[in-house]
Write a structure and sequence with these properties.
Elements: E1 6-8, E2 19-22, H1 28-36, E3 40-42, E4 52-55, E5 65-70, E6 85-86, H2 90-102, H3 113-125, E7 132-135, H4 142-152, E8 159-163, H5 169-172, E9 187-192, H6 199-212, E10 227-233, H7 237-242, H8 248-254, E11 257-260, H9 270-282, E12 287-288, H10 290-297, H11 304-317, E13 326-327, H12 329-335, H13 351-367, H14 372-379, H15 383-392, H16 397-402, H17 409-415
Parallel strand pairs: 2-3, 2-4, 4-5, 5-6, 7-10, 7-11, 8-9, 9-10, 12-13
Antiparallel strand pairs: 1-8
């Protein structure tokens, strides 16, 4: 089924703020980083009151949720087998704690300096009431960054997620009415893929923002009962404004603060760490061979972290070439969409394969009667990954609707009809 346009994140406003306790040898700067994300950090003496205990020495107290880290320097000794994450960077460990406390899926994990800079900026901007646009490709974790911003803010009400691609102009007027009564705690609205709004919906949203303005934008202090807007997009909104596809007045109201989330291909050092984490959670009995991790690091991952997690999930359950629990480079190559030749640097899909896959996606959408959820199912990918490929090819929702597509009868027969009762786009 299609995602409903408006949903409330149950994990973004928990009734009780997560309490974390760092065990012995826990870095003080790590505790400060976690606290700035809106998570209460208890002193070691009060560890019995914590909901999450963070271990650094191999201790696992009973009766509480435990995350274990090994900060062993590279080459010093083999990492502890019981550690959830082995890393040299406390920032990566702090992000895993935050992801665990806020129940972020997939985990927001990085030791990449540009990515860490974005997250520091996000936490710093959380203290204001100003709108923020999160720009990044599909699968980079824009929603997770919005969750951290909301957690680190003074807004204790819910975070309402709105799928703009499915939002109608008549629903925009009801956005604030859908927020449950939060008794003056303040709430936030996350506009997912704001670049997909229709022109009529853009106008309604602009009028809504104008009606909600209570304080000057220069004033960083907002009333506790106000509503904050966080927007995400994988499109170049400035270009859309120049082309007349997006209202400039709406853009400048939302684009008070802007953060660009780097794609995974620019954070290749994070790939092995993320792959090991996903594999440990999916099947802790399996391990990556060093060559397999190098192969993963050489791939561009057009679907970013989301694609990496799906790939590792397949590797966690699929039969392996070695016949044992070791994942080798042959297994990785077999499950990747495109794998480079030896020594070749990957910058994306090869042009010929890109054109062929683009044509297949367009024909499958047409064969499914415009139903993107069904088209994604037939192509063996998630709807968000399908949306990424559509955007990468420069095809907006309006373009797909208006562009006739010749359907191969064999493809149509193979695809069949969309299930009855399933909404179409």
């Amino acid at each position: 089924m299609e995602q409903t346009p408006i949903t409330q994140s149950t994990g973004s406003a928990p009734p009780v703020t997560p309490r974390v306790c760092l065990g012995q040898n826990g870095p003080a700067e790590m505790a400060d980083f976690i606290a700035r994300a809106g998570i209460e950090v208890l002193p070691y003496a009060h560890r019995s009151r914590a909901s999450i205990y963070v271990d650094f020495v191999g201790a696992r107290p009973t009766g509480m949720d435990v995350l274990s880290f090994d900060f062993t320097a590279r080459g010093e000794r083999a990492p502890r087998a019981t550690a959830d994450l082995a890393t040299e960077k406390w920032q990566a460990a702090a992000l895993l704690v935050i992801s665990h406390a806020l129940r972020l899926k997939p985990a927001l994990l990085s030791a990449d300096p540009p990515m860490l800079s974005v997250l520091r900026s996000a936490v710093a901007a959380a203290t204001s009431h100003l709108p923020i646009i999160l720009n990044g490709e599909i699968g980079t974790g824009k929603y997770n960054v919005a969750r951290i911003i909301h957690s680190a803010s003074r807004y204790r009400g819910p975070l309402l997620s709105v799928g703009c691609a499915s939002l109608q102009d008549v629903e925009v007027e009801n956005l604030t009415r859908t927020i449950p009564e939060s008794k003056g705690l303040g709430a936030a609205i996350f506009l997912d893929e704001v670049g997909e709004l229709t022109d009529a919906a853009q106008l309604k949203l602009l009028q809504l923002l104008q009606s909600l303005e209570r304080t000057p934008l220069a004033d960083a202090q907002a009333p506790a009962s106000s509503t904050r807007f966080l927007a995400a997009t994988n499109r170049a909104l400035t270009t859309m404004v120049e082309r007349g596809e997006f209202r400039g007045e709406l853009f400048w109201r939302l684009n008070v603060l802007s953060l660009k989330i780097p794609p995974l291909r620019e954070r290749t050092g994070d790939v092995p760490m993320l792959a090991r984490l996903f594999l440990r959670r999916a099947n802790p009995r399996r391990m990556f061979m060093p060559m397999a991790l190098r192969a993963l690091g050489s791939y561009a991952f057009p679907g970013n972290v989301m694609e990496l997690e799906n790939l590792v999930t397949r590797l966690a359950i699929a039969p392996l070439a070695t016949g044992n629990s070791l994942i080798d480079v042959a297994d990785v190559r077999r499950h990747l969409m495109v794998m480079p030749a030896e020594g070749e640097q990957v910058s994306g899909w090869q042009s010929s394969r890109e054109e062929a896959r683009r044509e297949m996606i367009l024909k499958t959408i047409a064969a499914a009667g415009g139903n993107r959820a069904e088209a994604a199912r037939r192509l063996g990918m998630t709807r968000r990954t399908l949306q990424y490929h559509i955007t990468k090819a420069g095809l907006s929702r309006r373009a797909i609707r208006s562009k006739p597509i010749a359907i191969d009868p064999a493809l149509a027969a193979q695809a069949g009809r969309a299930p009855s009762g399933e909404p179409t786009c």
